[in-house]
Write a structure and sequence with these properties.
Distance between the termini: 39 Å
Strand content: 5-15%
Number of helices: 11
Number of strands: 9
Strand order of the largest sheet: 2-3-7-6
């Protein structure tokens, strides 16, 4: 049946076991709490710790640093299960799939030992501070500065749209250690919020109210003469931040693409179930040729997206996913996700506009996919450079 989820060619028995365990965990610990979390605008810290106990955090970080010892395939399985469970707004992809990998790739032995095990257990929740009110995808132009002063950096500036921003204990800050330089002046500095929040100069603004992903704590943060030990610089030398960002962004963009494909498949599953049951003019919605043709087109696009992203997953695991292919995957899958959820919502009629129906939440949640991780317009520019 087309309504059943296709299995990726890279799946094996270990990953199937992980999929089943993750599904059970989410059904027990996350799904019943989603309404409350959406109302409060964040997922409880206790849920992070439970996820750590279940081995769902830092799944692709080596066991030597407290992680699950897997690879990106394990992160992909987790992303898909979160999507199919209807979990919207859990920032584990940022925590485990992005920040943990910056630390693992560029951190010193001491830095990895200090942060990764606590991230894997859920004791620490991580965020990354890239975007500024006046700077989105242009990371060379960030205005936040980290100026060396003795054994510390003095951090000043403002960041916004931080996933996990209200919960975060550890923030990877993109800052200029040399404001006179463009890309060569960018560095990544890990800010531990304990001890600097409040009088230490670090403060969190409001938990931003969003169109969708209501349970995600998306915040703005402020740095006013925050002193951060120079030992918290990633990479051992200043000015490496832009290159580090570029090296890791293909994985970030593939994370978004994996979520998009799972979102498309979940949308089609929910829609197929509805059109088989709902009747109009004495017939099932599915019995109308318009419905059949539109769903045939969308199922075809879903399969194309799945095959493409599966190939990208295998390339990434082998260290062969290039920037332009990752950009292709990100823009095309998220564009199709938004198109497909919009068209599927139409089959629900007025019910599709009601937030009590999953399709309405999927519609609201999907729109940001074309924006974060680099807007789709930026993705097309990256692709065009290779032409």
């Amino acid at each position: 049946m087309l309504s059943q989820r296709p299995e990726s060619p890279w799946m094996d028995e270990e990953l199937r076991i992980m999929r089943e365990a993750t599904s059970r965990f989410l059904a027990k610990e996350f799904v019943p709490n989603m309404p409350a979390w959406e109302k409060q605008g964040r997922i409880d810290r206790d849920a992070w710790r439970k996820a750590g106990e279940a081995g769902l955090l830092c799944a692709s970080i080596p066991a030597a640093w407290g992680g699950g010892g897997g690879n990106f395939k394990h992160e992909a399985v987790l992303l898909e299960e979160v999507t199919f469970a209807g979990i919207s707004g859990w920032g584990n992809s940022v925590h485990s799939g992005i920040v943990a990998h910056y630390i693992h790739a560029y951190g010193s032995e001491e830095q990895k030992r200090r942060w990764l095990p606590k991230m894997a257990s859920g004791e620490l929740v991580a965020a990354i501070a890239m975007t500024e009110p006046g700077t989105g995808s242009d990371l060379q132009s960030v205005a936040t500065t980290a100026i060396a002063d003795g054994e510390d950096y003095v951090l000043n500036g403002q960041k916004t749209f931080l996933t996990n921003g209200m919960n975060a204990d550890l923030i990877c800050v993109v800052a200029k250690t040399d404001p006179g330089e463009a890309a060569g002046g960018v560095s990544l500095i890990m800010l531990e919020t304990e001890g600097v929040e409040g009088e230490g100069g670090f403060s969190r603004g409001r938990n931003l109210e969003k169109l969708g992903q209501k349970a995600a704590d998306t915040a703005e943060v402020f740095f006013s003469d925050v002193r951060v030990p120079r030992a918290n610089l990633l990479g051992g030398a200043e000015g490496k931040g832009f290159v580090q960002l570029m090296q890791q962004l293909p994985q970030e963009r593939l994370i978004i693409a994996v979520g998009a494909v799972a979102g498309i498949e979940k949308t089609l599953q929910v829609t197929s179930e509805y059109v088989k049951e709902r009747k109009a003019f004495g017939k099932r919605i599915l019995d109308f040729q318009n419905t059949q043709f539109k769903l045939a087109e969308r199922y075809t696009e879903a399969r194309i997206a799945r095959v493409f992203v599966d190939d990208c997953v295998e390339r990434l695991v082998k260290g062969k996913l290039d920037v332009s292919t990752a950009a292709m995957a990100k823009w095309w899958t998220t564009q199709k996700q938004c198109e497909i959820v919009d068209e599927c919502l139409q089959f629900f009629g007025g019910y599709g506009y009601m937030m009590e129906f999953p399709i309405a939440r999927m519609y609201a949640d999907s729109r940001v996919q074309k924006i974060y991780g680099g807007s789709n317009e930026i993705m097309k520019m990256l692709i065009a450079r290779e032409i």
